[in-house]
Amino acid sequence: MVDWSPIAKVYDPLKAGSIDGTDVEPHDRAVWRAMGARYKPNKGVVGDPLLTLFVARLNPQTTEDKLYQVFSKYGDIQQLRLARDIVTGFSKRYAFIEYKEERSVVRARRDANKLVVDQHEVFVDFEQERALKGWVPRRLGGGLGGKKESGQLRFGGRDRPFRKPINLGVGMVQERGGGGGGGREWDRQGARDREDRDRYRERTHRHSWTNLT
Q1: Which residue segment(s) compose the domain that 147 sits in?
Q2: Which PANTHER family does the protein's record reference (predicted)?
Q3: Contact 14, 26 (CB under 8 A)
Q4: 22-26, 77-81, 108-112, 154-158: the lowest-pLDDT one
Q5: Do residue 60 and residue 115 come from a single domain?
Q6: What 3-state DSSP class applies to 165?
Q7: If you write DSSP's letter for every residue of 21-50 in order, what string do you get?
Q8: Measured distance CA(114)–CA(122) in Å, rounded
Q9: Is residue 153 part of a domain?
């Protein structure tokens, strides 16, 4: 457990279905489906996944222009795509925003999460579909986060990080503040900054290696 992290670096449906990432058996049928899924990212999605943000929980009335106005303050935007129903044209309430610079993505991910846009508190994170190895979307039983009402919570993401396993070991960072949640080490600003730096160091390294091959 020395490499334990509250944020998944590789997507594993079995671990994502576990509150601390230690399950050895799926606890719901959707996890079984996700474990057997063979998902390939949408080839129609263009742009650099390492410079792209995923923005969700949008107001159905929020437009592309509004998103551009809000998120351009974090840096120059290369392109913005608000997902819409192919038949009705209605918003699916999530969007992808590609920036021109890495620092803009990090800044927006850090500062725009839980920002209120058109009376809705939005969720912001790095794109997962093309950047997180092994990714399986919610419709196939995977994904991250989720609502308690669905009975299919997924852990290891920004919305619902893994909790520290009880048998983690003495040498690792310990939780503070008991079981209240608010004292978890990764909830502190310094831990969030380290998470951003570490993840982007890995992502940038992988991106550079891909360009060389």
Answers
A1: 1-39+142-160
A2: U1 SMALL NUCLEAR RIBONUCLEOPROTEIN 70 KD, U11_U12 SMALL NUCLEAR RIBONUCLEOPROTEIN 35 KDA PROTEIN
A3: yes
A4: 22-26
A5: yes
A6: coil
A7: S--SS-SSHHHHHHHH------TT--S-GG
A8: 5
A9: yes
Residue 70 region by backbone torsions, left for phi larger than 0, else alpha for psi between -120 and 50, else beta: alpha
> Which residues lie closer than 8 Å to 204 by C-beta, 6 or more apart?
50, 102
Place of tokens 């570490």: 198
Same-domain check for residues 125 and 149: no
Q: How many CB atoms lie within 10 A of CB 210?
A: 9
Q: Per the structure block, which two tokens stand in for 27? A: 């606890």
* Higher pLDDT pick, 102 / 176: 102
Tokens 């919570």 — which residue?
Answer: 153
Q: Higher-confidence residue: 163 or 171? A: 163
Of 139, 160, 141, 162, the closest CA to residue 152 belongs to 141
Q: Across residues 43-50, what is the average pLDDT?
A: 84
Are 196 and 106 in contact by the 8 Å Cβ rule? The answer is: yes
pLDDT bucket at 163, cuts 50 / 70 / 90: very high
3-state DSSP assignment of residue 7: coil
- Looking at the fold, whether 51 and 124 belong to one and the same domain comes out as yes
Which tens digits make up the pLDDT trace of 61-117? Answer: 999 999 999 999 999 999 999 999 999 999 999 999 999 999 999 999 999 999 999
Give me the amino acid identity at 126. F
What's the half-sphere exposure (Cβ side, CA atoms, 13 Å) at 54? Answer: 19
| Non-local CB neighbours of 211 within 8 Å, separated by 6+ positions | none
Structural contact between residues 41 and 130, judged by C-beta atoms closer than 8 angstroms: yes
Whether 89 is covered by a domain: the verdict is yes
